[in-house]
Specification:
By secondary structure, the chain is α/β, with parallel strands linked by helices. It has eleven helices and eleven strands. Strands 1, 2, 3, 4, 8, 9, 10 and 11 form an eight-stranded mixed β-sheet that branches. A three-stranded antiparallel β-sheet has the order 5-7-6. Helix 3 crosses helix 4. The radius of gyration is 19 Å and the shape is globular. It starts with 7 loop residues before the first helix and ends with a helix.
Length: 286
């Protein structure tokens, strides 16, 4: 089996400005934050970001890297509104496509199985159609003749996801309560990259969680990055929970330009190692 181990910066080196990039996880849960931080260190711009969004979306909006956002929601879970996303929306600084959560799942699934669209009842009778006038409906060709919403496929140039464990060939495993839609992000993408808490021998994957937890197999994956604490400050159950104190610090800083510059200087101006050391130093000082 091919060895697909890479660094965060090598992954970001495979991306280009203007790409459509899907980011896995859910809200402030198991986000590939070390890869997002690597984008912040790069010169990538004008990205179309697809996400069930959390601080991944917020940080990229704050840094001016997002041209268009396709999302089912953007939230920090315990804090309902993501402050940088809120600011970007209020300033009309980004183009947006706002879907129902199920519609976004269907758009990724259609891309995964290389269909132009998939029909659904989700979104019918709601303002989703009003705010997305490009959407079309189709009529069932069977006797029911039901009118359904045709959700267009959403192919991705690249997908970034974070899981608990992986082997060097890219077989990746989640050990928490939910895969979210990380597998769909990977199969909808031309190239998919997995960061993980630990890279382990392949045989150890079966011992850790069983075959049902291996939902991102190596054929979906182009590169794998070992990134301990790589989802911080989002959760990565059962390895660690969300760093709620850090998240509140992030939100407070986002409300004040000077405080935000200090936050960026402290946590986001250096390498991933610098970030992890700053986080650890903060914990030691508490």
């Amino acid at each position: 089996m091919a060895d697909k181990r890479m660094t965060e910066d090598e992954v970001i080196g495979r991306l280009r400005s203007g790409m459509t990039v899907g980011i896995g996880g859910w809200g402030s849960r198991r986000k590939p934050m070390s890869l997002v931080r690597a984008i912040l260190r790069s010169d990538l711009r004008d990205l179309t970001v697809v996400s069930y969004g959390g601080p991944d979306v917020g940080l990229l909006c704050a840094a001016g890297r997002v041209k268009r956002l396709v999302y089912g929601f953007v939230s920090l879970d315990s804090i309902p509104l993501e402050p940088h996303f809120q600011a970007a929306r209020q300033a009309a600084a980004i183009e947006v496509t706002e879907y129902d959560e199920g519609m976004l799942q269907w758009a990724l699934y259609a891309a995964s199985i290389r269909l132009p669209f998939l029909p659904t009842r989700a979104g019918l009778g709601s303002d989703v159609i009003r705010v997305n006038p490009q959407l079309r409906t189709v009529v069932s060709p069977y006797d029911d003749a039901e009118e359904l919403l045709a959700v267009p496929a959403l192919p991705l140039d690249a997908a970034l996801v974070h899981l608990n464990r992986a082997d060097a060939s890219g077989n990746a495993q989640y050990l928490g309560p939910d895969l979210y839609f990380d597998d769909l992000f990977c199969t909808a993408a031309e190239q998919a990259f997995v960061s993980c808490e630990r890279i382990v021998p392949t045989a150890e994957l079966a011992e850790l969680g069983g075959i049902a937890s291996l939902r991102v197999p190596r054929w979906m994956v182009d590169g794998v990055v070992e990134a301990p604490n790589g989802a911080h400050f989002t959760s990565c159950a059962p390895d660690y929970g969300r760093d709620e104190t850090f998240q509140r610090e992030y939100v407070a800083a986002a409300k004040d330009p000077q405080a935000w510059q200090e936050f960026v200087h402290t946590y986001l101006s250096g390498s991933e190692r610098d970030y992890q050391q700053a986080v650890a130093a903060r914990g030691n000082a508490a």
